[in-house]
TrEMBL record:
Species of origin: Nitrospirillum iridis
Gene name as annotated: gmhA
Molecular functions (GO terms): carbohydrate derivative binding; D-sedoheptulose 7-phosphate isomerase activity; zinc ion binding
The organism's taxonomic lineage, starting at the top: Bacteria, Pseudomonadati, Pseudomonadota, Alphaproteobacteria, Rhodospirillales
This protein's UniProt keywords: Carbohydrate metabolism, Cytoplasm, Isomerase, Metal-binding, Zinc
UniProt-annotated binding residues for substrate: 51-53, 64, 93-94, 119-121, 124, 171
PROSITE patterns, A to Z: SIS (PS51464)
Protein name: Phosphoheptose isomerase
Cofactor note: Binds 1 zinc ion per subunit.
Known pathway: Carbohydrate biosynthesis; D-glycero-D-manno-heptose 7-phosphate biosynthesis; D-glycero-alpha-D-manno-heptose 7-phosphate and D-glycero-beta-D-manno-heptose 7-phosphate from sedoheptulose 7-phosphate: step 1/1
Function of the protein: Catalyzes the isomerization of sedoheptulose 7-phosphate in D-glycero-D-manno-heptose 7-phosphate.
Reactions catalysed, as given in the entry: 2 D-sedoheptulose 7-phosphate = D-glycero-alpha-D-manno-heptose 7-phosphate + D-glycero-beta-D-manno-heptose 7-phosphate
Length: 197
């Protein structure tokens, strides 16, 4: 068991090291932070969605922005589309699960908003439909996905691909990026000397 645990930790470290060495990924993260800061400073909001573990990430990241991350400052406009069971069950029941996020984008998405779409496979239909709904409404899109990007790649303005094809490893990469992006947004909008960058 100890060896298995060490092997798992090694696999996680390997993915994070590959991310650190990936200049293109790091540049894209910078671009996503700039895109998000510009949207928030213009009075727009960030929307988040994902399935399963990625739904938890979506809620987690929205919470970091609305509440606080590293330090106290005014709340930032962010909504996870994964949390309202009445909305999710109504859409699922009346239109089908594939529309669970697209319908919410239609209702809540405004031109200038940013949608963070999480899908490790890049193939979840409710995420793909939501990305198409964003294109129709002028909502900017950021994909968080795995090495291939799946069908998301062609639908996102920016795509952050974790160099792995294994769902849990990809999710761990997303989690590292999510914290990083929330921290950088906070620091750029409400600069604080001595705060972690
Ligand atoms: O957390 C995990 C696996 O680690 C699962 O719940 C996983 O998120 C679910 O199977 C999702 O439905 C996978 O969807 P996606 O990432 O391919 O869009
Ligand atoms: Zn999981």
């Amino acid at each position: 068991m100890i060896e298995a645990i060490k092997g798992e930790l090694g696999a996680t470290i390997q993915v994070l090291q590959a991310m650190q060495a990936d200049n293109d990924l790091c540049q894209r993260v910078t671009d996503v932070v700039e895109l998000s800061v510009a949207a928030l400073q213009a009075g727009n909001k960030i929307l988040f969605a994902g399935n399963g573990g990625s739904a938890a990430d979506a809620q987690h990241w929205a919470g970091e922005l609305v509440s606080r991350f590293n330090y106290d400052r005014p709340g930032l406009a962010a909504i996870a589309l994964t949390t309202d069971t009445s909305i999710l069950t109504a859409i699922g029941n009346d239109y089908g699960y594939d529309y669970s996020f697209a319908r919410q984008i239609e209702a809540l998405g405004r031109e200038g908003d940013v949608f963070f779409a999480l899908s490790t496979s890049g193939r979840s239909k409710n995420i793909l439909r939501a990305l198409t709904a964003c294109k129709e409404r002028g909502v900017k899109t950021v994909g968080f996905t795995g090495a291939t990007g799946g069908d998301m790649l062609a639908l996102c303005d920016q795509c952050l691909r974790i160099p792995s094809t294994h769902t849990p490893r990809i999710q761990e990469g997303h989690e590292a990026l999510g914290h990083m992006i929330c921290g950088l947004i906070e620091q750029r909008i409400f600069p604080k000397t001595g705060a972690p960058a």
